[in-house]
């Protein structure tokens, strides 16, 4: 999914407490013997959803138990499997102390002293405070314990030696013990959005171009990248230019893209298991922060040779592209002007790249394998030209 280095968040209770925990596969909670307060558990549950822990630690494709691990993550350097984080005492984290858990989540160090691969995004989770992490543990302590052995990691040599993570940590991990730093120049709303995006939400892992070590390139922060064959769009001020905050909220809460199609790929799980549970203030905060971010889109990764005319693009559109785009089959965007204004916020060259490489349900070149890159570009130009002629 991603690179090897990042590889695609009391009092005893005598009576049950009404905490939403059954939708989207979330388990019912065992609260009767908990030593934690209802407030702490509820906050921990909210952070678990904000951090999208369910998606990574539940093998949904094989109907796995909630948070019991087993999800396989393929990388160019081998395969990783998410661990069991239920309170089972033999295969989960039931015997972990609070300190063990805090150190694992905020520093990426297991109770036995070994280093986690940063597929577990501890470098983002350390933006959360120690109390935040303890609240997460309070929630995980009351989910059903599942006895399920953790799958052995299958990393290729020499990456199977976790000690090599020391080099990565020295270069890229923030070792300070502080949590998120407030920007005193920004509003409370924008700071909240920054905390979510930069911290538990770990949005940069998919929406930023990564360097060889799997670290988001600062110059292209949140400016779009390809993940698992899907284009994770530019979500900076440029990429969201034609979207109002409510439109951004609809993506998170209603699974509705600006093109009126549903989300696909990795983002589908993020929306279903995470974003739709956030409150309106936090959704607004995310939108406010994203629309304040300014960075440059990465270079296009395919050759762009514009040797075909608009007329030739029109012929390709009518013979190959129109069937899906005119009828919005599989969510293909039609030629509505507003929709293409939104798409063009990603940049014309980026639209060429998506059309040539494909994205999600759309095959490379729209299925026209024999088409030259320039011909596909001309078809995109023709579609843009159609929208420009609309009043």
Describe the structure.
The chain has about 400 residues and is mostly helical. It has 3 domains: about 25-170, Cytochrome Bc1 Complex, Chain D, domain 2, CATH 1.10.760; about 190-290, Cytochrome Bc1 Complex, Chain D, domain 2; about 310-390, Orthogonal Bundle (Cytochrome Bc1 Complex, Chain D, domain 2), CATH 1.10.760. The chain has 15 helices and 5 strands. It has a 3-stranded antiparallel beta sheet with strand order 1-2-3, with no helix packed on it. A two-stranded antiparallel sheet has the order 4-5. The longest helix has 16 residues, at about 310-325. Mean pLDDT is about 85; it is low at about 1-25.
* Order of strands, widest sheet: 1-2-3
Q: How many helices?
A: 15
Q: Please tell me the overall pLDDT.
A: 84
For the biggest sheet, the summary is:
3 strands, antiparallel
Q: Would you list the SSEs in sequence order as H and E?
A: HHEEHHHEHHHEEHHHHHHH
Radius of gyration: 22 Å
Distance between the termini: 42 Å
Helix content: 25-40%
Domain count: 3
Can you identify the CATH class of the largest domain? Answer: Mainly Alpha
Label the overall shape: globular
- Give me the count of strands: 5
């Amino acid at each position: 999914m991603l690179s090897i280095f990042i590889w695609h968040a009391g009092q005893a209770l005598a009576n049950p407490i009404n905490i939403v925990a059954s939708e989207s596969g979330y388990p019912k909670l065992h609260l009767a013997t908990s030593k934690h307060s209802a407030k702490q558990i509820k906050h921990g549950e909210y952070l678990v959803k904000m951090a999208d822990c369910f998606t990574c630690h539940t093998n949904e494709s094989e109907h796995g138990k909630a948070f019991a691990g087993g999800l396989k993550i393929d990388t160019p350097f081998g395969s990783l499997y998410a661990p069991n984080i239920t309170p089972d005492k033999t295969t989960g984290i039931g015997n972990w102390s609070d300190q063990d858990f805090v150190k694992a989540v905020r520093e990426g160090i297991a109770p036995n002293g070994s280093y986690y691969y940063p597929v577990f995004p501890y470098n983002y989770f350390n933006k959360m405070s120690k109390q935040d992490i303890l609240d997460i543990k309070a929630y995980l302590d009351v989910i059903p314990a599942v006895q399920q052995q953790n799958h052995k990691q299958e990393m290729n040599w020499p990456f199977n030696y976790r000690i090599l993570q020391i080099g990565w940590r020295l270069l890229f991990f923030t070792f300070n013990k502080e949590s998120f730093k407030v920007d005193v120049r920004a509003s409370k709303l924008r700071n909240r959005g920054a905390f979510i995006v930069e911290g538990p939400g770990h949005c940069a892992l998919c929406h930023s171009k990564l360097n060889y070590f799997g670290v988001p390139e600062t110059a292209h922060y949140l400016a779009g990248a390809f993940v698992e064959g899907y284009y994770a769009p530019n979500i900076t001020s440029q990429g969201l230019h034609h979207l109002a905050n409510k439109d951004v909220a609809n993506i998170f809460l209603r699974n509705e893209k600006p093109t009126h199609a549903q989300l696909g790929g990795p983002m589908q799980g993020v929306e279903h298991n995470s974003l739709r549970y956030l409150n309106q203030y936090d959704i607004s905060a995310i939108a406010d922060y994203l629309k304040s971010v300014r960075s440059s889109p990465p270079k296009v990764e395919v050759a762009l040779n514009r040797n075909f005319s608009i007329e030739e693009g029109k012929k390709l559109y009518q013979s190959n592209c129109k069937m899906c785009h005119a009828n919005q089959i599989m969510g293909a965007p039609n030629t509505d002007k507003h929709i293409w204004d939104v798409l063009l916020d990603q940049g014309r060259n980026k639209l060429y790249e998506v059309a040539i490489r494909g994205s999600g349900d759309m095959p490379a070149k729209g299925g026209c394998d024999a088409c030259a890159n320039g011909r596909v570009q001309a078809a995109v130009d023709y579609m843009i030209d159609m929208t420009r002629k609309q009043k």
